Amino acid sequence: MQLSFTSQLMRLSLPVLSLLFLASCGAPDFSSEAPANGTADMAQEAAPSESSGPTGGSAALLTEASAAPKVPTRLTKRAELSLTVNSTEQAAAAVSQILQDQQGDLLSLQDQQPDYAGDRQQILIQMRVPQAQLEATLIVLKELGTLENQAIAAEDVSNQIVDLQARLRNLRKSEAALLEIMDRTGSIAEVLEVSRELSTVRQSIEQIDAQEKALQSRVAYSVIDLSLTEAVAATPSSRPLPEKLGSTWQTATRSVSTFSTGLLQLGLWLLAYSPYLALLAGAAALGYRHHHATASANEVPPG
User: Fold this and answer.
1) Which of helix, strand or coil describes residue 238?
2) DSSP state letters, 255-289
3) How far apart (Å, rounded) are the C-alpha atoms in residues 175 and 169?
């Protein structure tokens, strides 16, 4: 019974002792030599720092972060689509109708006809559609044939647009300030200097404004690179005999003309270098005569 009472007493006293120990460790030290006023001043100086401690600083940062305006995400998207179709011509006509339905634009079309037996006809189309209609347009296009390849790439240009807009605002403020200076009276030299600065600022405004509009257009419209390949290889039709003979005659006449032009050009080059060629020929002839004379003098007459 005595042991149980002692154990209960120890269990009750342990939390109290822990609290006393923590209080003694956290109590301020009043035994320093600084005066009471200095301690009060230090306490007053410490008060703001405590309020701006980790907890206060984090709260302030959270408040500023929540109050700061969020930059809207602006993406540019580009898609690549490869389809195998039964007829490239019919598929291309269907693509034209799809563009009209989706309010898109045709940027380029390249029809690659087969040159050899076994090649398949292919049509390459580049178009653009509103970004909101990109997914719907891809779904409709994939219904034209068998999907061979699909890829979509996106790029975040939010920071670029915000940066360009900020630069535009600053440049327009500079333009307004320069216009105010122009309205004031001054010497001709000062007016000319301000006019040059104003021209430079306006040129920068035009350039940055064009860049910002180009980015906005890339965000508003997505580009699709579509490849249509015919499923069955086409057999090139043989040309009629008169057409073949005419083509051969044209090739032969072009070859003769090229050869004649080359000969004339060679003759002009030889004519231009004829003095040097004559000197070289004369030197070669003199050398040959000297060598022949030396050889004849060195010959031993027969005994």
Assistant:
1) coil
2) HHHHHHHHHHHHHHHHHHTHHHHHHHHHHHHHHHH
3) 10
Are the C-beta atoms of residues 124 and 109 closer than 8 Å to each other?
yes
Single-letter amino acid, residue 293 = A
Distance CA 166, CA 82 (A): 41
The series of mean pLDDT values per 10 residues for the chain, 303 residues long, is 43 46 43 40 40 46 53 88 92 93 92 76 93 94 93 93 94 92 80 89 95 94 94 65 80 87 88 87 86 73 54
User: Nearest to residue 218, comparing CAs of 110, 289, 120, 129?
Assistant: 129
Q: 87 is written with which tokens?
A: 């007829």
Q: Smallest Cα–Cα separation from 164: which of 96, 279, 71, 63?
A: 71
Per the CB < 8 A criterion, the answer to whether 150 and 117 are in contact is no
pTM greater than 0.90 (yes/no): no
Task: Give the up-direction half-sphere exposure of residue 189: CA atoms within 13 A in the CB hemisphere.
Answer: 0
**Tokens in use for 235?**
């057999």
State how far the Cα of 78 lies from the Cα of 96, in Å rounded to an integer.
19
Residue pair 236/114 in contact (Cβ under 8 Å)? The answer is yes
Angle at 185 between CA 179 and CA 189, to 5 degrees: 85
Provide the CA 13 distance to its chain's centre, in angstroms: 73
Element (H, E) at 187: none
Q: How far is it, in rounded angstroms, from Cα 236 to Cα 39?
A: 102
Contact assessment for residue 219 and residue 157, using Cβ atoms and an 8 Å cutoff: yes
Percentage helix, strand, coil, to 5, in the chain? 65, 15, 20
At which residue do the structure tokens 């995400």 appear?
A: 73
Q: What are 91's two structure tokens?
A: 């598929």
The first and second tokens of residue 112, run together, are 């690659």
